[in-house]
Design goal:
- The complex is a heterotrimer of chains A (301), B (307) and C (389).
- Chain A is mainly alpha-helical.
- Chain A has one domain: ABC transporter involved in vitamin B12 uptake, BtuC (Orthogonal Bundle).
- Helix content of chain A is 74%, strand content 4%.
- In chain A, a hairpin with a 2-residue loop joins strand 2 and strand 3.
- With 307 residues, chain B is mainly α.
- Chain B has two domains: 262 residues, ABC transporter involved in vitamin B12 uptake, BtuC (Orthogonal Bundle), CATH 1.10.3470; 33 residues, no CATH class.
- Chain B has 13 helices and two strands, in the order H-H-H-H-H-E-H-H-H-H-E-H-H-H-H.
- Chain B is globular.
- Chain B starts with a helix and ends in a 16-residue tail after the last helix.
- By secondary structure, chain C is α/β, with parallel strands linked by helices.
- Chain C folds into two domains: 207 residues, Response regulator (Rossmann fold, 3-Layer(aba) Sandwich), CATH 3.40.50.2300; 151 residues, Rossmann fold, CATH 3.40.50.
- Chain C is 43% helix and 22% strand.
- In chain C, the strands form three sheets. Chain C has a seven-stranded mixed β-sheet with strand order 8-7-9-10-11-14-15, with helices on both faces. A six-stranded mixed β-sheet of chain C has the order 2-3-1-4-5-6, with helices on both faces.
- In chain C, helix 5 packs across helix 6.
- Chain C is elongated and about 100 Å long.
- Classes of the chains: A mainly alpha (301), B mainly alpha (307), C alpha/beta (389).
- At the A-B interface, helix 3, helix 4, helix 9 and helix 11 of A face helix 5, helix 10 and helix 12 of B.
């Protein structure tokens, strides 16, 4: 029983790592029908930004007390989010704006080119080895009834929840959020009603990139490393989460991310670690077979 | 032909041209598969399936090369048909995801099958592919694409892509057309994969993954998705480009990514675009204009081709 | 008349001097080695180290004025680098390019198996000697032109298990391995297959894939089987995460870790796990970065000119060049590949940190390094290990 709960917790925590990247990815896709393949690389930029700041400040590994750690964490978060937000805005202006609205694959391959360039630039700048990101949050482990969770895992989970809530607030409760929803549902009608679609596009990609920066900091600290190709895995998983969740609700992406994590953990624990991805994919396919509009519904049927 | 080229071209260019030819064959398969509106994110896996089938037959069972290649193509065809049947009723994006998941599942199965080597890959494949094998087959595939475009099946496929309901109303059997066309493309991909396996002489499950499927998608869209010359140009150009960039040892792929993105932005419809069917593609029309004798203005109809 | 005489004298002097330098140049040969390895892409960290190892070896020799062969000719070394970017086709393209170039004597590389698995048969077809610097993929059928300095698992793992058993007396062992990497998987499976012979019980055998980041599910399963030792078989990014997550799950206190290929001796591992690899055990090619061998110390000092730290792949690169130079010395040629291959095929050399021995007759080709000696070491610090016997 304890093992079951531990695997469940493992799954939820792993799932939140997928969700944290998938949320921004899904936002851009549902609003603009653009698959931003450079999103995992912007996430990687966030992780490297954290590395640069933390190692630049010569922070000793886990040597800070809680208030200083929290302050440093927030500071690193701020810098990383600024960096990735800027990168996202540049990406939007140069690459996404000219290519969106045409065939769905055109921005896909344009951002694919950007992602190749970014991965190799990171390799050139920081070297091909993963770099060590000193952990900022004191690495406490909480043991509840034999089930172990670390503080950084909880921080990652909370980051995912925070991103989800922030996006939800933005989309539902702000003026620009309403405009965004309008563009997501029917871009032509929104434009006809006077919504500045270009501005919405910039805001969306900018916000998604800021979230990617937060995700990069969280995962860079969770795994205490940043590597040029760290975005590859998350790209694939986020893509899947996004398509299975449907684009009606932003919370759906988080839910599917957690579900994917739990499914993987359960398959690894109880069936076989060899076939983990095969079974996870098969289950997702089954979901899509019975609910082709995505688990939580989407705008187009 | 092989020896003529071998005598006149540096060997490394022969390798690059063969690689470009192989990529083109597989991308042509993608062109066929996607011509009825599907979006295949697993063509590298289909090519890999054809590769494994052909390689096992020649290496372990000593089948003659052409027959093994054909068997690989048939394998690709069969799995492609299966996949098409699975995704028949799904909407476009979900079908795309299904192909992605299918491809990844095939990769995992390949990693777990020790008969074909697992992670070590299948090695010891005899070298049967050469320039003489690849380019005639490529010419055949391109010819087939040209005939396909002008055939009833081709028109039916494009109708299914543009408006499935109208196509059904016109009496086209949409499910059958979609399935057949997808399976044809998968068969061609299997053929390309078999050729590749007998050139590179090693076949890994990794080569079937999402990353390589994205590469073929890039070749196809970059070149132009509406005409069969698109994939030819896209695959050739994007395979040869990294080799041209070798002067920059470390930054090769940064430059490649930038060039790729820039060209896509400048040519949104793909590099080779097409005027509506019935007229020659822009690129060919431009070339023809170079050789045409000047014609009196009065007889110039609308037949000069588009922009 | 006088001007004419002076002009003639100057002309004569110039010709004599030119003649002297010309004959000097004829005695000084240049031997060209071509490196076909991964500079970019996911294997970039291994390929770059191998390339730098070769470059450092060449620099040491060239700085000493080159080397002399057994027939009295002097040589300097020229290197060229080809990036295969983790692609089979680019590896073959490089090899064919090298074969086409008559100044190239041998190809050094590649390190990733994507390269060497494809290059090995082609080496035989184009008759170009290739010395691989790190691939451990099992080769079904060798040809006389392919060699590698890597110590392969079939040689090292049984030796490792024997010493492991004698020193630690383990009973319950678990293994977590990367199913997508040939070398890691081959060793994991070999250990599983040999476990019975050494009366070890494999209580868990968990798989993961390259690029995975979360291993807690597998580790939780392993935790449930309570092994004494855990074999961690994966590349640095995954392995370091596994060890970090072991600590988070409370496993580091309960079990010890082992691996192969000298991976734990890489300082990057120490950095990424914050020293948790202390006390871990691995087999390695007999090299020790902290050894008192003067050549090793010189290499470690001179390697500081490169942006990364040296690891086993740097050593493989260095050894490959040493073996190639040794063969040139015996073959007395900078351009005849057949003579070079025959000399290389009978190598017995004490190279950096270990020995390189090839026995690769044309009748029964086998390009493995027969001289490699595996050592078992336990990690005691970022750059230090103790040998176990």
């Amino acid at each position: 029983m304890e093992q079951f709960v531990q695997q469940l917790v493992n799954g939820i925590m792993a799932g939140s790592t997928y969700a944290v990247v998938a949320l921004g990815f899904g936002l851009v896709f549902s609003v603009m029908r653009v698959v931003n393949l450079a999103h995992p690389e912007i996430f990687m930029i966030g992780a490297y930004a954290a590395f640069v700041v933390i190692s630049g400040l010569h922070v000793p590994d886990a040597g800070l007390d809680v208030p200083a750690a929290v302050a440093l964490f927030l500071g690193v978060l701020f810098v990383a989010m600024l960096t990735t937000g800027a990168a996202g805005l540049v990406l939007e202006r140069l690459v996404i704006r000219p290519t969106r609205g045409t065939y769905i694959l055109t921005p896909f391959i344009a951002t694919a080119g950007v992602s190749i360039a970014l991965q190799n630039s990171a390799q050139r700048l920081f070297g091909p080895d993963p770099v060590h990101v000193p952990s900022v949050i004191p690495p406490n482990t909480f043991i509840v009834g034999g089930v172990r969770v670390t503080s950084m895992q909880l921080v990652t989970f909370l980051t995912a929840v925070a991103i989800m809530l922030a996006l939800r607030y933005y989309v539902h409760s702000t003026r620009w959020g309403r405009a965004t929803r309008a563009v997501a549902e029917k871009p032509d009608v929104a434009a006809a009603c006077g919504v500045n679609v270009n501005l919405v596009s910039q805001l969306t990609v900018g916000i998604a990139s800021i979230m990617a920066g937060a995700a990069g900091v969280a995962l860079g600290l969770l795994y205490t490393s940043a590597a040029p190709f760290m975005g590859l895995l998350y790209g694939l998983k986020s893509f899947i989460c996004m398509l299975v969740a449907g684009n009606r609700h932003i919370e759906a992406i988080m839910a599917v991310g957690l579900l994917l994590g739990v499914v993987e953990a359960m398959v690894t624990g109880y069936i076989s670690s060899n076939l983990r991805d095969a079974v996870a994919f098969a289950l997702l396919l089954a979901v899509l077979f019975f609910r082709p509009q995505g688990l939580f519904g989407s705008y187009e049927v | 032909m092989s020896s003529f080229l071998a005598a006149h071209l540096p060997a490394f260019w022969v390798v690059t041209l063969i690689t470009a030819g192989l990529n083109t064959i597989i991308t042509m398969g993608l062109y066929f598969s996607n011509s009825a509106g599907a979006l295949s994110a697993c063509h590298a896996a289909l090519a890999g399936l054809g590769a494994y089938v052909a390689a096992v037959l020649t290496t372990n069972f000593d089948w003659p090369f052409p027959v093994a290649l054909l068997a690989g193509a048939v394998g690709g065809f069969a799995i492609g048909m299966l996949l098409a049947l699975m995704t028949l009723r799904m909407n476009e994006l979900v079908a795309g995801l299904t192909t992605l998941a299918f491809g990844e599942t095939m990769v995992i199965i390949a990693f777990n099958l020790d008969y074909i080597g697992g992670a070590n890959g299948f090695i010891g494949i005899p070298l049967y592919t050469s320039f003489d094998a690849v380019y005639p087959l490529l010419a055949l595939v391109v010819f087939a694409a040209w005939r396909f475009d002008r055939s009833r099946l081709g028109y039916a496929a494009r109708a299914c892509r543009d408006n499935p309901h109208a196509a059904a109303a016109m009496g086209i059997n949409v499910p059958w057309v979609k399935t057949l066309v997808f399976a044809l493309g998968s068969g061609i991909a299997g053929l390309g994969g078999g050729l590749r396996a007998h050139y590179v002489l090693v076949q890994n499950p990794d080569d079937m993954g999402f990353f390589f499927s994205i590469n073929y998608l890039i070749f196809w869209v970059f070149g132009g998705s509406y005409t069969f010359w698109g994939p030819v140009f896209g695959a050739m150009f994007l395979t040869i480009l990294p080799e041209l960039l070798r002067f920059s040892l470390y930054d090769r792929f940064i430059i490649y990514g930038v060039i790729l993105t820039a060209i896509v932005i400048v040519r949104l419809q793909g590099v080779i675009t097409r005027v509506p069917l019935g007229r020659r593609p822009v690129f060919v029309a431009w070339l023809a204009r170079l050789w045409r004798r000047p014609v009196p203005a009065a007889s110039l109809g609308g037949s000069q081709g588009g922009r | 008349m006088q001007r004419w005489l002076i002009g003639f004298a100057i002309g004569l002097l110039t010709l004599t001097l030119a003649g002297r330098y010309a004959t000097l140049a004829a005695e000084d040969r240049v031997v060209h080695f071509f490196q076909d390895n991964a500079l970019t892409g996911q294997s970039g960290s291994y390929g770059t180290r191998s390339i730098h190892g070769v470059e450092l070896a060449a620099k040491h020799i060239n700085d000493g004025g080159g080397f002399t062969d057994t027939c009295g000719n002097k040589y300097t070394i020229k290197l060229s680098v080809w990036d295969m970017a983790n692609s089979h086709e680019q590896a073959i393209a490089g090899l064919r390019k090298a074969a086409d170039d008559p100044t190239v004597l041998a190809v050094l590389g590649s390190t990733p198996s994507t390269g060497f698995a494809a290059m090995e048969p082609v080496a035989g077809q184009v008759k170009m000697p290739v010395i691989a610097t790190g691939s451990a993929v099992p080769i079904k059928k060798w040809n006389p032109y392919a060699f590698r300095v890597t110590i392969a698992t079939p040689v090292a793992a049984p030796y490792f298990l024997k010493t492991f058993k004698e020193v630690f007396h383990p009973k319950r062992v678990a293994i977590i391995y990367d199913i997508t990497q040939d070398a890691q998987r081959a060793e994991a499976e070999l250990i599983r297959d040999l476990a019975g012979k050494f009366s070890l019980e494999i209580v868990a055998f968990e798989a993961f894939r390259a690029n995975d980041t979360d291993f807690r599910a597998q580790l939780t399963t392993i935790k449930g089987t309570t092994p004494e030792w855990l074999g961690v078989y994966g590349a640095i990014p995954e392995g370091s995460k596994i060890i970090n997550q072991m600590e988070e799950l409370g496993l580091l206190g309960k079990m010890n870790i082992f691996t192969g290929y000298g991976v734990f001796q890489d300082p990057t591992y120490w950095d990424l796990t914050n020293g948790k690899t202390k006390g871990a055990v691995n087999w390695a090619v007999a090299f020790n970065l902290a050894s008192s061998d003067p050549l090793m110390q010189k290499v470690v000092a001179d390697y500081k000119s490169f942006p990364e730290e040296p690891t086993i792949y740097s050593v493989y690169g260095y050894q490959a060049l040493q073996a190639a130079v040794d063969a040139v010395k015996r073959a007395c040629t900078a351009t005849d590949r057949e003579k070079f291959r025959d000399a290389l095929a009978d190598t017995k050399l004490e190279a950096l940190g270990g020995s390189v021995a090839f026995h690769n007759p044309r009748a029964e080709p086998n390009g493995e390094n027969q001289g490699g000696r595996a050592i078992i070491s336990r990690i005691t610090g970022r750059d230090s290990y103790e040998l176990l016997e």
